[in-house]
Each structure stands twice: as C-alpha cells, then as structure tokens.
Please model this.
Amino acid sequence: MSPRRLAIEKRIGKERHLAITGVRPVPGGISSTTWAWFHAHHRSLLRRADLVGHLNTFLIRTWCGTRMVDPSNASFMGVYSTMALDGWNDELCENVSLPRKLLPEILESNQVAGHLTRQAASGLGLPIGVPALAGMIDTSAAMLLTGARPGQLLNVCGSTDVLALLTDRPKSDERLITRAFGIGRKWMSVSTLAAAGSGIQWAHDQLFPDYSWPKFNRLVKELARSKHSASVRFGPYLAGDRMSIEQRTAGFTGLTLATTRREMLKAIIDALASASAERLPLLLSNRAKPLRRVVVTGRGFDHVLRRDWQGRWRFAREEEATLRGLGLLLE
Model:
C-alpha cells in the first residue's frame, strides 16, 4: 500500500477527502498523488512548474496560450471540490503542497478556452484565431451523445469496462469514482473493471493460443451461456482494482490436476459477469428510477459482461460515441 496515498487521506481524513473530491486517492483515479510524489522526490523540478493540469490543459496552453481545465478533468486532479462544483479547494491544495497560482481557470466543457495562435494554426493547418473549446473526459463525451439525462447508464466496453451513471444528485461512495460531468450541475458515478476485454484477451493468449479468434469467440459465447462453475474460481484483477488503494491481484482457486483450460476460461467469464452485475445496485442507489435504455459503446465482450444483470434492460449500441459526443459540444 502506498504511504503517499495514505498520507493524503490521513492529513485531511478519509471521509472528508471523499466528501469533497468524490473519490479516494486510488491509482488511476486521481492525480494529486502524482504531485505529492514529485513534491517528495523531485522538489527542485517542481520549482520550475508554471501550470498544473491534464491533457486538455496542455493542448490549450500550447495552441492558444491560455490556462484552463474543464470540470470533468479537474475532478481527476484531487484538489477540486467535485461534490459541490465550486472550484479549487484550498484545504486540498495545502494538503499536497500545491500552490493555487499553478492551477488553471475552470471552464465548462462547451466554453471557448482560447483561439489558435499563429504558430499553432500553421502547425495544424488551420486559420489563425480558430476558437478551441475546453473539451471533456472521454466517458463524459460518450454520455453527451446519449442525451445526458439524469439516470442514464453508459457502458463503455473495451480493454477496461466502464459503467457510468449520470446523476443530478451525487452521493460519494468509496467503491465508486464520482466526478463532474463537465457541463451544468451534473455528475458521473463510475465503476470500472480494469481488466475486462483485456482479461479475455489474456485468456486467449495464455490458455488458447492455438485457437483462431473466431473459434475462441465461439467458445466464449458457449461458456457464457452455461451455468456458473462450481469448482474453479477466479479473481478478475489482472490489472488491479481502480476502486482500491491497496492494489488487488488476480488468481485462480480450486485448481487441481484434473482442471482443464476450458474450466479456467469459464471461471474468468463467470467472474467478469458477476463483477459487472454487482456494480448495478451500487450505482443505482444514486437514483430511484434509472432509465432502462443502456447505451453501449466499444468493442469489448459486452454480451459476457451483462449476462448476470438483474431486471429488464434495453441496450442500444453507439459506435465511436466519444468522438460523436465531442461533436455535440459545438451545438
């Protein structure tokens, strides 16, 4: 367990940190831990810092010369009052020794963040002065394509499986990542399976390298239709767990000399399907009446992951949801 991440919570208090940021200082869920690490190990380098932000901060500074970040990215920085949407939090900044002067202005995702400079326009092949919008996190952009109504569920299926609920009544929970949507007073409650499609890919590469992908996909579908394995079990944490500070690892239990690779693959499928279904009650506790139409995007094994979902759901697939959602920022 990282003492740096624990120190962030210890100084401010676990519950208070969660109540302000909507997330614990987990790997992949917050970037204040990175600042704290540099402050401890490379303080001289930080003295040269001029601006702290995320990718859109860097791009806009490079293209337009302005200093900004949108609320969805600010939520990942660990010093933003995500649950209240009221800007940078002095207590959190002091907690990780981050000077406020280094933080950018917060602009909603559909606001103009700046205009292309002559140098940037020349490099991009665009006219000088073209306006650049603030932008947003990829999952928020995909949610924008759905219509962004409170209660909407979005399932992004890929190497990582992301299940997100849009809400106007956020409730922090240490088992979820809560972040600003990016426009208006809306939030995203998010749960991820860090190794979903990549876990099945791993099973193919390590257990069934002699199978072509079409043949392997047929086997996955066959095993997904059968009942849960009673003997072999699998912990689906090949890429850790983005909800935990102390990172978990994957593993099989119940193996014997008689165990077959089919049984091992079956255990992986069952574990991913169960983990996906277990997220639903937690997410839906944020809203009494969720919309029953779930928008699905990505090219993962969504038919496997939603196998054990309880209740009646309608699934609508949208291709390239993030790119198409970003286009709606112009409207």
About this structure: The first strand starts at residue 68 and ends at 69. Residues 38 and 45 are 8 Å apart (CA to CA). The chain is about 40% helix and 15% strand.
